[in-house]
Amino acid sequence: METKAKAEASSVPEVKQKELLAEIEKLKEELTKLRNISAYKDGDQPLSLENKKAGCPPVSCNLKIRRTLKGHQGKIYDLDWGNEGKTHVLSAAADGKLILWDAYLQTKAHAIPLRSNWVMTCALSPSETFVASGGLDNACTIYNISETMGQYVKNQKPKCVLEQHEGYLSSCKFIGNKRMLTASGDKTCILWDIETAKALKVFDDHTADVTSLAISKENGTFISGGIDKNAILYDYREKKGRVLKFPGHEGDVNSVAYFPGGVAFGTASNDNACRLFDIRCGRQVQRYVSERYHGGPATAIAFSITGNLMFAGYDYQNNACLAWDTRTAKVSQVLSGHQNRVSCMGVSGAGSALCTGSWDGSLRIWAK
To answer: Which H/E stretch holds residue 53?
Structure first.
């Protein structure tokens, strides 16, 4: 009798476990249906359909080149704007230099020769006290520029070097002034404590190189894009980290950017398309592709401060950027001016200007 009771008691958790696993599989199937990935290429995406119902007028865009920043002697790979109300832009190029520009005055505010010419990414801290860079040296190097601003220091000593990645550094972003987030070709992202130069958490859900990062200003989440054709939403405050994976692209995800408000994000890919994903429903709501204006990989992406416009750079024969109407997925303006691939872009903190960086070695500031 006692043996039978023990057997019944031990079998209860197994039954519940099977029920839970079955329920999980059922929910996964329902989520796949809701995402409806097979419809991601349809002409009418959810956002287009809602816009037609609402009868919203098309968004106009009339940006012009207001400043051209020249000084790099190699391809520009990355840029980062300063905070709202400030006009500083940081750029990193294949000439092995970080340059901090005053975009309004069209002058160099600071320059740092790097230890390695193979730089791929850069970041400017919110206080503009620190700058960071990384690339094929597999490390993120952080410099304190508050004491040397305006001076040319040939061998400026780094504040710290963050070393743990086993592959090239593709992206780095400051989280406040005390933490750093990095992405690498070793398939991981790492959250760091800058003061101790120690890794706080490793995110390893990608199955191939991680190429880009975007950090939400509204909450403790970030988006990563990778060569595995996926974008992944993470919450760096949580122990597990990963929240949701967003498939859909048919090529490498080259760039990611949060939509204003943090409820959605955009992606740019080697499949020639940009996409808008809504985090709340976990699926694509708009797709941006036009053979009329381009036929090459989308290399960079950014949103206007209102979210009405999405800017995208391309590696194509005309080297243009496209300003898309976010809701209708129609081109509002073609931004021409660069002589080579547009590799990076960003909107100023105040939302008044767009900066584009190119392999032609220049930065261009676009505004009304």
So the answer is: helix 46-54
- pTM value is 0.89
Rounded to whole angstroms, the Cα distance separating 119 from 109 reads 20
The two three-digit tokens of residue 185, written as one number = 């070709």
Burial 174-208 (b: 16+ CB within 10 A, else e): bbeeeebbbbbbbbbbbbbebeebebeeebebbee
208 is written with which tokens?
A: 């191939």
Q: 258 has which bridge partners? A: 265
Tens place of pLDDT per residue across the chain (368 aa):
444 444 444 455 777 888 888 888 888 777 666 666 776 777 778 898 898 889 889 999 999 999 999 999 999 999 999 887 789 999 999 999 999 999 999 999 999 999 888 999 999 999 999 999 999 999 999 999 988 777 666 778 999 999 999 999 999 999 999 999 999 999 999 999 999 999 999 999 999 999 999 999 888 999 999 999 999 999 999 888 888 999 999 999 999 999 999 999 999 999 999 999 999 989 999 999 987 776 789 999 999 999 999 999 998 878 889 999 999 999 999 999 999 999 999 999 989 999 999 999 999 999 99
What token pair was written down for 170? Answer: 């593709």
Alpha-carbon separation of residue 228 from 150, 190, 211 (angstroms): 42, 18, 10
Give the torsion sign (CA, 202, 205, 209, 211): negative
- Nearest CA among 282, 273, 287, 250 for reference residue 33: 282
